[in-house]
């Protein structure tokens, strides 16, 4: 076992870099040096698996091949291209950032940590990843995978999600990044965490740094890293109103420009408080959104969906417009939508699920 931390760091760099040269994953964003394409890939990869991202990455770049095309596109087109990739605030952020890049930076992705972190959606991790990969800057890119690797290699027995410990792990990662090919080193860590040093059942027998990994040598690889106990995931109830006009078109509303699933379209309705009756709550949500009175009829469908911080159950009811004309109060817009319209509008996964369930009724 290598006892000296400085020696561990040196061996860590050399062995990981050599392993990456032989075993790196072939990914489309690794075949370009275009900062725009690297930026898009890094935003898409936030909390999303590589295999899920690849087809979206190709389609997105076909629709928006450069930052000028992205900035010129309507937000609705960007959201539609992002549909079902999740975490839709990322799409809104890159669209807003594209305007800043075009208007303030002449179409060039900023190349300093201070500047790039002023863009919407760019935090410490994204800044380090983009700048090291696209511009060769000696910066760490520290996410949960990297923190897990570091906690195992150095046998760190404090919760890795503790803010103070995260700062120490960032400093440790920064000390490891080599001056030569820092982007490759950061991507090597990403690959190691994704394919070898996994959260559950790490593949230590194929790990290039197993011989210096203190967790492996102490048989702690299935214990580390330590995390704080996660709070219970809340469960929320929601209701949607299926309202048709005389032509059979469905009433749809566009969500507010901020908040959950911002600017996507949906059936009228929303979350129902625990103390509210479902039907009465739906009447209240529709009144708040559209200033109309409805009669709530039979339940048509029910679907379940898990978000990052909560689970949701959405129930759809057959409803009739009783009084008033729709008016955009708690939404951006409203419209009567045909089946062909619904194919073009950006909707969230849970809304697509409820539409599919209604169609099968």
Rounded radius of gyration (Å):
24 Å
Number of strands: 7
CATH architecture of the largest domain: Orthogonal Bundle
CATH class descriptor name of the largest domain: Mainly Alpha
Biggest sheet record: 4 strands, mixed
Averaged pLDDT, please? 95
What is the CATH H-level superfamily of the largest domain? Hypothetical protein, domain 2
Share of helical residues: 40-55%
Q: Determine the N-to-C terminus distance.
A: 65 Å
With helices defined by DSSP (H or I, 4 residues minimum), what is the helix count? 15
Give a brief rundown of this model.
By secondary structure, the protein is α+β, with helices and mostly antiparallel strands. It is 45% helix and 14% strand.
Features:
4-stranded mixed beta sheet; 2 domains; single chain; 7 strands; 3-stranded antiparallel beta sheet; Endonuclease III, domain 1; alpha+beta
Secondary-structure topology with pairs:
Elements: H1 5-23, H2 35-44, H3 50-63, H4 67-72, H5 75-82, H6 89-105, H7 113-116, H8 124-135, H9 144-153, H10 163-176, H11 182-195, H12 214-217, E1 235-243, E2 250-254, E3 265-266, E4 269-272, H13 278-290, E5 293-306, E6 311-323, E7 334-337, H14 339-344, H15 349-359
Walk me through the structure.
With 361 residues, this protein is an alpha+beta fold. It has 2 domains: 213 residues, Endonuclease III, domain 1 (Orthogonal Bundle), CATH 1.10.340; 125 residues, Nucleoside Triphosphate Pyrophosphohydrolase (Alpha-Beta Complex), CATH 3.90.79.10. Helix content is 45%, strand content 14%. It has a 4-stranded mixed β-sheet with strand order 4-1-6-5, with helices on both faces. A hairpin with a 4-residue loop joins β5 and β6. The longest helix is centred in the first third of the chain and has 19 residues. 37% of the residues are buried. The model has no long low-confidence stretch (mean pLDDT 95).
């Amino acid at each position: 076992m290598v006892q000296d931390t400085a020696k561990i760091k040196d061996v860590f760099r050399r062995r990981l870099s050599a392993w990456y040269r032989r075993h790196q994953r072939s990914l489309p964003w690794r075949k370009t040096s275009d900062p725009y394409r690297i930026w898009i890939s890094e935003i898409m990869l936030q909390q999303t698996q590589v295999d899920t991202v690849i087809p979206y990455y190709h389609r997105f770049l076909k629709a928006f091949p450069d930052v000028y095309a992205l900035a010129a596109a309507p937000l609705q087109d960007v959201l539609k291209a992002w549909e079902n990739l999740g975490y839709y605030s990322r799409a809104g952020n890159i669209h807003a950032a594209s305007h800043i890049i075009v208007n303030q930076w002449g179409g060039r992705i900023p190349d300093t940590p201070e500047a790039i972190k002023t863009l919407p959606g760019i935090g410490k991790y994204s800044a380090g990843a983009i700048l090291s990969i696209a511009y060769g800057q000696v910066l760490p890119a520290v996410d949960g995978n990297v923190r897990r690797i570091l906690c195992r290699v150095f046998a760190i027995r404090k919760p890795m999600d503790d803010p103070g410990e995260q700062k120490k792990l960032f400093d440790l990662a920064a000390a490891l990044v080599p001056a030569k090919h820092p982007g490759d080193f950061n991507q090597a860590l990403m690959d190691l965490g994704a394919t070898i040093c996994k959260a559950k059942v790490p593949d230590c027998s194929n790990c290039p740094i197993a011989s210096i990994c203190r967790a492996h040598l102490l048989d702690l690889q299935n214990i580390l890293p330590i995390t704080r106990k996660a709070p219970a995931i809340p469960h929320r109830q929601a209701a949607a109103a299926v309202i048709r006009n005389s032509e059979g078109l469905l009433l749809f509303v566009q969500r507010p420009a901020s908040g959950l699933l911002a600017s996507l379209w949906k059936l009228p309705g929303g979350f129902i408080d625990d103390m509210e009756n479902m039907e009465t709550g739906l009447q209240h949500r529709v009144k708040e959104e559209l200033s109309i009175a409805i009669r709530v009829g039979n339940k048509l469908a029910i679907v379940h969906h898990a978000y990052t911080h909560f689970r949701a159950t959405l129930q759809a009811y057959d409803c009739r417009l009783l009084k008033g004309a729709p008016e955009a109060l708690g939404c951006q817009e409203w419209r009567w939508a045909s089946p062909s319209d619904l194919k073009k509008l950006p909707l969230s996964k849970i809304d697509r699920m409820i539409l599919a369930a209604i169609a099968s009724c």
